[in-house]
Each structure stands twice: as structure tokens, then as C-alpha cells.
Amino acid sequence: MSKAVIDALVQRFPDVVTDAYEGVGGDDCAFVKKDRIVEVCQALKDDPELRFNMAPYVTAVDYLGQQPRFELVYNLYSSSTNRRIRLRVRVPEDDLVVPSVWSVWRGVDWFERYCFDMYGIRFTGHPDLRRLFMYDEFVGHPLRKDYPLRARQPLVPEREVKDIYRGPGPATRD
């Protein structure tokens, strides 16, 4: 189903999009060079034939013992054409920096923060790159395969929460 999308990508970016293959269930896949991921994503979104207007999920994979060790996986969806495609970006362990696609899809903000927090992959151009699940003093990245199972973390004092029921926001709002 998305074979036409893969073919269009390979034709438009022959030196950037490599190792394209047909996935099981219609999710076709292609590898993209990490320094050009924003350009490829912008082309997928802006092309009137393709119109990939959603990035419903972005995650990372740790292949401990292989080179490159990490991989980012961008699952993209076009609601107008009902097509899906998966872009994979290889990220070597000695260079864990990838350009952010936040400028293409705003919702990717949380997924990139997740990959930063859990795997340690940094995103240049991200508006608010900070930990998502772990507290600031947490040492390491818990979804890496070399993270120790019985690792102890530093104790931190409990934080002051002014109003646990209301949370932040205007005081006059009900």
C-alpha cells in the first residue's frame, strides 16, 4: 500500500533514503540519514500526493553490541490517503544527537523528550528538551540495555507542591 510512497522517497532523495523494504501489514519502511531527517519529513508532509499530516509515534531502539547501537523509529500516517510509513534513523553511540522534527509536527515534542529521557538521545532544535518521566537528579537512562537492573538512584528531598488538587494555573479558574 505504501510502496508508492517509498518509491517516491527513494526517487526524490536517492542519497538520503536507503534500504527501503516492504513491511508486514502495509507498514513499509526506509532508512534515512540522520542529518537529513527533517528535510525528508517536511517533504512527506508538504507533498500534495502524500500528505503525511501525523506522526502518531516516535520511539527508539537499543541494539546493544551492534553498530550503530541506537535507532530512532518514526511512524507516520496520512489521514487523507490512509497510508502509513516507518522511517528509521541509525544513531551511533558516540554521536547521540539528531535534528528535531518538532518544526514539522508539533506533537513529536513529547516523543522526543521520551527518547531523550529513556535512551539519552539528544535533539537539536527541540524547544524544551528535558526529562519526561525521570526526575532531574536521576542518573542514566533506564531503557538502555546496559542499565543495571539493581541500580540505586540518589535520594532527593521531597518537592513542595502548593495545591495538589488544583495544580498550576489561574487562581480564579474553577
Describe what you observe in this structure:
- The chain is an alpha/beta fold and 174 residues long.
- It has a domain of 91 residues: 2-Layer Sandwich (Beta Polymerase, domain 2), CATH 3.30.460.
- It is 18% helix and 25% strand.
- The protein has 3 helices and 7 strands, in the order αββαββββαβ.
- The chain has a 5-stranded mixed β-sheet.
- The N and C termini lie far apart (49 Å).
- Could you say what the CATH topology of the domain at 3-93 is called? Beta Polymerase, domain 2
The computed structural class is: alpha/beta
Oligomeric status: single chain
The name of the CATH superfamily of the domain at 3-93 reads: NADH:ubiquinone oxidoreductase Nqo5 subunit
User: SSE order in H/E notation?
Assistant: HEEHEEEEHE
How many E-type strands?
7
Helix content: 10-25%
Strand content: 15-25%
Q: Terminal Cα separation, in Å?
A: 49 Å
Features:
alpha/beta, Beta Polymerase, domain 2, five-stranded mixed beta sheet, two-stranded parallel sheet, 3 helices
Overview in brief:
It is built from three helices and seven strands; from the N terminus they run αββαββββαβ. With 174 residues, the protein is α/β, with parallel strands linked by helices.
Give the topology:
Layout: H1 3-12, E1 17-21, E2 28-32, H2 37-46, E3 54-62, E4 70-78, E5 83-91, E6 97-99, H3 108-119, E7 122-124
Parallel strand pairs: 2-5, 6-7
Antiparallel strand pairs: 1-2, 3-4, 4-5
